[in-house]
Each structure stands twice: as C-alpha cells, then as structure tokens.
Amino acid sequence: MSSSFGSRFRVTLFGESHGPAIGAVIEGVTPGLHLEEGYIRAYCARRLARGAYSTARREPDLPHIVSGAVDGVACGTPLTVVIENTSTRSGDYGPQSQIARPGHADYTGHLRYGGFNDVRGGGHFSGRLTAPLVYAGAVASLMLRQRGIAIGAHAAEIAGVTDTPFDPVSVGPREFDALHSRDFPVLDPAVGEGMQAAIAAARADCDSVGGVVECAVTGLPAGVGDPFFDTLESRLAYLLFAIPAVKGVEFGAGFSAARMRGSESNDPFVSEGGKIRTSRNAAGGIQGGISNGMPLLFRAAFKPTPSIAKPQQTVNFVTGEALTAEIRGRHDPCIVPRAAVCVEAAAAIALADLLG
Amino acid sequence: MSSSFGSRFRVTLFGESHGPAIGAVIEGVTPGLHLEEGYIRAYCARRLARGAYSTARREPDLPHIVSGAVDGVACGTPLTVVIENTSTRSGDYGPQSQIARPGHADYTGHLRYGGFNDVRGGGHFSGRLTAPLVYAGAVASLMLRQRGIAIGAHAAEIAGVTDTPFDPVSVGPREFDALHSRDFPVLDPAVGEGMQAAIAAARADCDSVGGVVECAVTGLPAGVGDPFFDTLESRLAYLLFAIPAVKGVEFGAGFSAARMRGSESNDPFVSEGGKIRTSRNAAGGIQGGISNGMPLLFRAAFKPTPSIAKPQQTVNFVTGEALTAEIRGRHDPCIVPRAAVCVEAAAAIALADLLG
Amino acid sequence: MSSSFGSRFRVTLFGESHGPAIGAVIEGVTPGLHLEEGYIRAYCARRLARGAYSTARREPDLPHIVSGAVDGVACGTPLTVVIENTSTRSGDYGPQSQIARPGHADYTGHLRYGGFNDVRGGGHFSGRLTAPLVYAGAVASLMLRQRGIAIGAHAAEIAGVTDTPFDPVSVGPREFDALHSRDFPVLDPAVGEGMQAAIAAARADCDSVGGVVECAVTGLPAGVGDPFFDTLESRLAYLLFAIPAVKGVEFGAGFSAARMRGSESNDPFVSEGGKIRTSRNAAGGIQGGISNGMPLLFRAAFKPTPSIAKPQQTVNFVTGEALTAEIRGRHDPCIVPRAAVCVEAAAAIALADLLG
Amino acid sequence: MSSSFGSRFRVTLFGESHGPAIGAVIEGVTPGLHLEEGYIRAYCARRLARGAYSTARREPDLPHIVSGAVDGVACGTPLTVVIENTSTRSGDYGPQSQIARPGHADYTGHLRYGGFNDVRGGGHFSGRLTAPLVYAGAVASLMLRQRGIAIGAHAAEIAGVTDTPFDPVSVGPREFDALHSRDFPVLDPAVGEGMQAAIAAARADCDSVGGVVECAVTGLPAGVGDPFFDTLESRLAYLLFAIPAVKGVEFGAGFSAARMRGSESNDPFVSEGGKIRTSRNAAGGIQGGISNGMPLLFRAAFKPTPSIAKPQQTVNFVTGEALTAEIRGRHDPCIVPRAAVCVEAAAAIALADLLG
C-alpha cells in the first residue's frame, strides 16, 4: 500500500496539491510527548524556500492538529494534522493536463490511477506532500531527542560545488545546531555562496540543478537493526527513496567503498574507556545491517528540479501528438537546500519506527 | 520483523551457516507454476564462485523442496526449501568468537542478539543465507517470465575496472542471455580479464576488492509502483540493501544526476507507433516512483569482502583487549561476480511481490 | 498498530469524541469510483438513532472530503474524510475523569495511554469513532456493489426478543433492501415492536439491554480466503471485534454447531444447472476458511450499553476510593438497531480489502 | 497473505499432510530462551488423541530444529522446526480427489488454488498443520511463563454435555496444572466420562460430535491491547478462527451478555489492597479492547468432525455428477479434547506477539 509507512511509528500521508487540504495521521506518538510548537515550527520552516530561490507560490503551511493531542500534549492516539491549501487555483496546469512534462509523474500517474488522479499542481505527486512528512519528522525528532538521538543534514553538493563533508568519526550536535540556524544548510558558508551562484546561473538559463544531501545521526545505540531483510540501511533507504527526486542513496563510504580495498573499508575496532568503537567510519555506523554505535552517515542524490522554463520535447500522452512543453510560472531551480530537512525527517521517522 | 519480506510474494529466510540447515518459505507462488529444475539449477549456480576466485569451502547448495509442490509443480501453498549444511565444522572461528573482525557483524550481532547468536561461520549473517534468497529469486523469475519480464545484471565495475554499461534505452534479453551464459558476468570479456587480474592482485596482497553491479529489467509494464511511500525505488532499494555488503543503490543516472542540469536529466517523451516512450533514460525507467515502460536500471555498490588475511587492528569485544585479527582460511577476495545474481534475485522478488 | 486496518483497502481512523474532529483516511479506493452522495448519506444515516431511543446528543455527522476525490469521483489516492465535532463541551465527564465507570474503558484507557488519553466523552473510545468507520464501509460497499456483492444486517435479537432469521440458503438483496428502508432493522416489524417495548422497559429502569446482529453477504465469489491464518472467518472476526461492545462472533450455525452431529453440520453438495452449491448452509458459506459461493452468514453479540443511570459500585482508579458511579445525561439504552450498519460496514471493509 | 501470523512474534506454517514434511518458522523468539524439551514435548503431546478416540493414523510428530537454536537455547534468529511426514501413502483419497466431501475444504481448496493444491490427506488443510502451530504455541508459552502469564483450556462442552466452567474471577494456574495432567481435559472427571460416552455413541452411529473449548489466561498485565482495530478480542479471535473447525468465538459472557441488562454485564470495580479489580467478570478481562487485569476468558465453538463414515449426498465438483460420499478409514469422531491445546497455543502466540 502506498501512503502509510511504519508499524510502531506509523505515518499516513494524504492530500493533493490543489485539493482542500493535505496532512498526516501519525500513530505511535509517545503518550505525554510535549509537541513543542517552537521546535516544530522551526523544523518545518526549514522546508520552505528562503531568499532568492523561492517559487512564486508561497504558503505558510501551518498545520492544525485535529486529533491526538490535548493542549499540545500527545494523547497516544492517532495524531492528525491538516494543512489547508490556500492556493487552489488550477489554471497553471489545467488545460495542459495531458502533456507529459519531462521528468514529471504526469504520464506515470495517469497510468497508475487510470486517468482519475488529480493533476492540478502535481496532485498527490506534488512536493507539497513533503510538508506533512516533515511535520511527522519533527514529531519523531522530539521522540528521538528524549533518547539522546540527534540528526543533522547539509547540502553536501549542488551543481558540482561541494561542501566540507561531516567528519565521519566526530560529527555531532554542534554541527547540527549550526546547520539548523542557517538559511542555507552548508557547513562552509563560502561554499554556500558558490552553490547559490550556480543555482542563479541555472535559473538564468531557464534550467535547474540537483545535488546531494549528507545526513548524520548521533546517539543511536549500538545493536539496532533487524537482518536479514530489515537492515538499518533497508529501512532508511526505503523512506529516503520516497522523497520526490531522490535517485541514489549510499551509506558511509558508499559507492566509494566499491573502489577501496578491504584493508581500507574495514574499520579497525578500538576500545576507549571501556567502550568499543571504530577508529574510522567507512561503514557509516552500520555493520551487518545493525548500528555499531558510531555516527550513522548516509547521502541522498537529488536529480535537478524537473520544472524548467526551457522548451522541451514531449507528447500529449492521450493523443500521442508531439509538442513542446513550456512550463510557466516561477519554479525553484534547486530543491536541495530545502530537501535537507526532508532527509532528516525521513531518518527520524524510520528510526522512531525502529525504536518503537 | 527481520526475516520475512513481502506481502503478496513473501520470502522468509532461515538458518545459520554451521547449523543443521538453511532455507526459505516462499508464499504466493502461482498455483500451477512449473518449477523448472534446469532453470533453477542454472540460476542458483551463478551464485557460486567459479574458477580462480573460489573460496576453499564449496558446497553444492542443492535445495530440496519439503512443501508446496507436487511433482515439480507449485501447489499455491507455502513453498519450503531446505539446504542442508554439509560442512558444519566450526573450528575456523570457534575459539575466536569474541573477536570483532573488522568489517564483520560479529560485534553488532553480539549486541543485537544479547550474545546468544550462533557465531559459527558468521551464523545468520553468513553470505550463505543468500543461497535461499537466490532460490526464491529463481522462482520469482519464473513467475515474471510468464509476464514477459526479464532481468539481467553484470559486474559493472570491480576494483576501478569498468565494464561497458547497459544501453539505457535498448538493453534487453539478448544481453541478459549472454551474461547468464558466461562464467564471469561482464558484457565485455576483455574487461573481465582486467577485473580478474585486479582480483588476483588483491589476493596476492592478502586483501580484497569491491565493485558495482548494474541491473536492468525489461518488459515491466508502465504504471507499476505505489507512491507516496511504496515507490518502485523504495521497494527495490529495501531488498538490495538487505544483500550483505551493499552500501549504495542508485537508479538511472543516480548520483550522476546530481551533477546534471534539468534539461539533461529530464527524459524527452516521444511517441512511436502509438506507444509513449522516452528518447533517453536518465530516470532509469521510473518517474514519480512508478514505472514508465522504459528499461528499469539500477546499480548497487558492494564494499570489498571483509574477510582478509592481512593483519588488522581490533579488540575482543567482551574484554576490550586490543589484538590483531588474523582471518585464516581461503576467502573470496571479490564477491561482485557472484553477487550479480543476488541483485537479480532481489529485483525479481521485489517485482513479484509488487505485481502480486 | 492500533488505528489502521487492511493492506489493499486500508482504513485509518482518528479522532476523539470532544476534540476538534474525527475522521478516516481510506487507501485503495478504486480510481474513478463515483462516491454517490445519496447512497453514502443514507448508509451513514442508519448509524444514527431514530425515534424514541435516541441519545440527547445528536450530530449530523456529515463528513467532508479533504483529499482523494475530485467532483465526487475517487482519484485512487488516499481518500480523507473529516467530521467536525460540533459538540465539544466536556462538562459531562470532566470532573469525574478518574472514575472507572463500570463497563467502560476509562480505567483500561488510562493504563494504556499512561494517563494522557483524552477522557472527554470517552475520547478515542467513544462510539462516535464508528461514524468514520461506517463512512469507510459505505465506500467499500460501493466498490463491492460493482462486483455484484450485497450486504445486509438486522437486529436478530434484542433483550431476548428474536427476529426471524435470514434463510441461510435463499437470503438475498430483496431482504437487504427492505431492511435498509426501515427505521428499525428487523425482518418482522411486529418483532420490532416487541424489541422497542423491551428497550423502553430497560430505560424506565435506568438500565440498558444488548442483542445480536445477524449479517449476510451475497454475491461473494467462491474461492475467496487465505488459510492457514488469513481465513475468511479470521478476517471478518478481526474487524467485528473492533466494533465497541461486540463480545461474540459466530459463522453459520456457530455455537449451535457445537451441539450438532457431523451428519447435520456437514452441508450436502448438489449441482444445479452446472453450478455447485450446498442444499443447507450450516457452514455460513465458508469451508476451510474459504468462501464456497453460498451466502456468507454470521452473527455478532453486543453487550448492553454500559452507560446506565442506575447507581453502580466503582472506584476512583487513581485514589482507589470506593464510590457510586452516576452516569448522567440521556444515553441510548440499546445500540443494537444502530449497530447493524456498523456490522455491515466492517464486513464491507474486510471484503474490499480481501478482494483488493 | 495466508501462512504467516504476527509482527513481533511471527509464525509461518508450511506443509501438506502427505508431502515430505510440515513445519514452522518462528521469528521473534527471545534470544537465550531455553527451549525446554520436556515442557515442549508434554505440551505437544496434548494435541494427540489418547485412548479410545484415536484415529488409525498415529505419528509421533517429533519436530526437529533446523535453525535458530544452539544446544536447545534460542539464538534470536528464526527458529525453524520440521516434522517429517512418515506416513505419506495417499491411497485413501487419491482416486476420489474430485469428490467434494461435505464439511471439508476439497471444493473450496480446489477453487482457491486453481486445482493445483495437494489433495492427499487434506493437504495444507489437514488438521496435521496444527502440529507446528502447537509447537509454536509451546515456545510462546515459555516466553509468557517468564512474564508470569499462564494459560489453560478445557472441553467445556461436548455433544451437549457440559463441564464445570472456570470461575471467572478466581481461575488460576492450579486449575491449569490439573487439566494439563489429565488425559481428558475437563475440570470434572465425571463429566469427562459422559462426554466420552457421547463420543462413543456418535462413533457407533458412524457420526461425529462437536463442542466448545473454554480458555483462561492469568497474569496478563492490565493495559494491553491496541484499539481502535487491534483490540485484544480482535487479535485472539483472528488466530482462533484459523484453527480448523472453529465456527464461533466469544469473550466473557459473550452471547449470553446479549440477554443481560447493563446492570448485570457491567462489572463493578473494587479496590483491594491498592489494586483495582472487578468483583465480577462478564467482560472476560477486556474493556475497550484492552486487558483490565482480570483473568482473560473466552470460548471457541468447534463444529463436529466432518469426516464421518455415514453415507452423504455430494457431487464430483469437476463433472457435477451426483454421488454418495463414503469416507473410509478410522477418524476421530470428536477433536474437541485434542483441540484444547490448539486454543491455548493460539492464545499464547497472539499474546507473545502483542507483548513483543
């Protein structure tokens, strides 16, 4: 089934971009959890474009809670949040609803739902659906915080410009706090300038760019994960690949490990003050599908935003007629900075579910 | 839960490397499916090392069917296969069972199972568990073949030596048949020579190498996949990351897409003879988490074999004592050629489950 | 997990009696299904008390659709309905929130949710939660109707007064239509008079009564059900026991079969016009957990309404203090007539999920 | 899916009556659990007919463990047991495989599995499949025993002869121990004599009889159960209805509650020594789908054994030809005494899964 994830912390997403509302039902929230409004608001705000790279359509995305909490405290019953769609005009895409915009889900969505899907604004495929996902991630993060688990992500690469990577052994909440306080989530602000220049250049060309988000999790106890199938990598990758535009996921050294020798990719074990750890972290904190107590490290590759103003060759998928797609309106030429919090949210949800 | 995957084609794996047996229960096999012994035998044989790069321990791994079939025809009830462990001597690892071999799951497995896991030969973490996985993949492949779906994989890269990639638009069963007939699964046999030389060099250094498996699926109908969460990428990645040693998964252009512009990564649509297709395939056959009718393309990165003879720094994870791991016995310095069929099997199982 | 049911037709319920809203997310609705408003309204209306036996609190319970449909046609994406709680005053129970009302879930809910559950009006345990359940049942019924499957239920017994049972062999849509058109769902209206008199007598005594709902399903194809575990009985019983106040479920002859001999409970097979059927139906249309093409027949026992005005011995579950529970306000002394549609809804949901 | 139950304690059953073997994969066994052979053997032995009412076919049903345990101690990985079928002759039913034996699953199984199911000896529908179920129940019971939870069941009624019921308030392990030590599981041995006489009379008439098993669980903590859907009743009923021949399930007063008034069926709360309990137990220990700390009480109705020697009217379900079924061989005319342990096993499995 499509729209629910999890068994112990379960998130069910609903909504279409231009329908009445989008939202989520979140099951398994710890009874008594304080849903700190300031924390959640700041968390969700990171999903919104800031500064130059925003889209024309801006919505506050303020969810309201319709069940599962009394006075901001979780009841333990399903927590439901609804985000009203204030902008429901559909003129942008309406008359062009049979055009297969390259890189979009127009054609595949049409097939999957027998032509009955709501195509306005991308419908259920809209990036707007990440708003309730991020809300659920905020709630999961509050639950994880109680266990001493922290999560942070940054734009590790945009248009080929690369940020300083996390130190795989020593990364921690200090870096996360710094990232969360910045408008542009990079460790090295100078790099952020270069990325923004590259984004602006793409926009000037009526084009878009992609990038890579790197994420780290600290404080996760060793011994978490359920092989054979339900490995920590499987769980996390499953959710990461649900984020629109993600086309690759790697843990620790990832694809680079494929070019290492075993003596390089095997992390030596050491004992420090009675605690077992590894002196390197090519494994990204996971061995045999189970956490080993080191920082969890993974990266998600995002393809460029498919909505570009540049004319593109395509077809009317009902008639087969060849035509040129012209996607109007202002679109964010790079979602990667905004996607960092989506990656954090996915990780938080996956781990909250795993830890039960 | 750990050892079962799927809801409509469900595989439950069991067994420890040096216990009485390993095996699988496979639910959802089409009643009446002919379990072609020759096909399955050849499929499973591809998992075994051939030629120079074999391990010392060779087992025929011939499964016998204990339920769910009569005279080689599936009943529709759970199909259970058992593979007896003929080599159950445990001297190799026995006295060293508290040594955290770098790159292995010894330490994490100890934590996960409270010290009660069967450590002999890697126990439940042994690569031997891929034998019943591959058997299940063979059965799934037979089911998919009835629908006109074909799957092939090759060693796209080993120790930095790269094979010709699949043509993302025209790849098909002809390439798969060629690969399946070769001892070393590469499209370009000359490249295979180079890979084998690199493997031999690593072995000579008491070391090991990793690589990348590329896999393609053809014949999958357009319109398959269940966003938001249950995207085609999510499903496949979930299973691929369960294969031991996989540390990265990408679809289509994958991590390369992160460096493209939208005008490059958006695949133009064309109509040919009344059929909609794309003229490129950076998407790897998936848009919005749903198949678009083009070949499905993905790659899995394998870290180098962790078992190496080279001395490595480590600890006794019970006492914390520092020591040097010396892994004796002959080990396969590169599992990538044998892993190609594991990747095919994972894809077949995921798709059989999705198609129901 | 608690609040979701199903894998192919999945219903997630949310809400508390006196919170902002209650509702449901319904996944797996057939794309293109016309959500006939008249049908759904009439279906849901049967859940409301009519005539003399109503409670003081009446709400229209008109759900509004917030996702998954455009112009009354299902998109195939999650269908979300929200029912605002117009009556959110909580004075009834507020100051008494630590009193374990006999027969209610006050004490067990307190334990289950660590004291954080919303106790106002029964919170998540309120019978109001059956409103979105019945809505989901109406949608499932529309899907089943397309397959020629019909469902009907009647108050087979109330306070010991028994209605004519369904004819187990010939029952069909004609009886269902008659029942659905009546204010009081009985086959024999004279019996309904007797039941209402018994209910009135209980009310006069500040007490309440229970009863039995009998349900039949016709048009279900033979061959549906998935033993070993996922039998048709298991599926249906699972959902029926989720309806508040249900304490017993039986199929076909049920508990009576325990007193039969095999020669009585075995239904003889006959062939009529090339179609196999049974000449009796003690099996309730199910053999070996699989439908046999005969009408599906089952009964659910409802305990009396726990809310009674009669003084009852109880305790404050926090302090342990003994006291007398006095439940004020007007309460429905018999929910059985209104519960018939809940039973139909549960059956419809279970079958829609099973048929996919 | 059909053959797996559970998410935290998961049982997958496999096998056909006359195939090579039957068995189970049991996931979620506590690592380190001692699989006490004497306990398990005695538990499983209660499933076998003893004395006069045995069938002709007797097998020791000794399972052997093929994975998940070392030296009788659970590893935490999937515990797999295999029971070889020593009697695989198929002559009994072979030539009659198209005869729909009344009360059997021959016809429905044929439809469900497209005619490919193994019909020999009932195949996957055979009562033999309860052998691995009971084994899994024994393991679950060992896990529950560590938490102080005890389970007992007796033949509460056979052919209309009724045993003394459990005292719903004070029932406990003492009664369970007595029952488990008896050949015939009744509280009142004199009643057992009457039941055996009724069974013998049915046998003399070439007929069979059914009955009711009553089961009690003590030591279950209050606060267990997950409404809305995953109520304690739903969970238990789901598994109970998977036991072949069960046609009714009721909790506490069950169907009798339907004839009570609320003042009778509401159990008054009292506080004793700081502990909250109820002075009666019509609820069967469950309120709002959640345990209340009182003994859990439920009853399962078993229809008579369908295999009877008496000639019965039926058809060949392929040709439609009318004929007379003559079921040869000796069959147990009443499975109820042997079914008591099946009911206990189902309860143990459901609770082990719920408690995780």
UniProtKB/TrEMBL annotation, chains A, B, C, D:
Binding of NADP(+) occurs at 47
Which EC class heads this enzyme's classification?
Answer: lyase
Reported EC number(s) for this entry are 4.2.3.5
Q: Which segment of the chain is annotated as a signal peptide?
A: none
The annotated pathway is:
Metabolic intermediate biosynthesis; chorismate biosynthesis; chorismate from D-erythrose 4-phosphate and phosphoenolpyruvate: step 7/7
Catalysed transformations (reactions) = 5-O-(1-carboxyvinyl)-3-phosphoshikimate = chorismate + phosphate
HAMAP family assigned to the protein according to its UniProt record, in alphabetical order: Chorismate_synth (MF_00300)
Q: Subunit details for this protein?
A: Homotetramer.
Any idea what job this protein has? Answer: This reaction introduces a second double bond into the aromatic ring system.
Per the record, the similarity remark reads:
Belongs to the chorismate synthase family.
Q: What is the name listed in the Swiss-Prot or TrEMBL entry for this protein?
A: Chorismate synthase
Organism lineage reads as: Bacteria, Bacillati, Bacillota, Clostridia, Eubacteriales
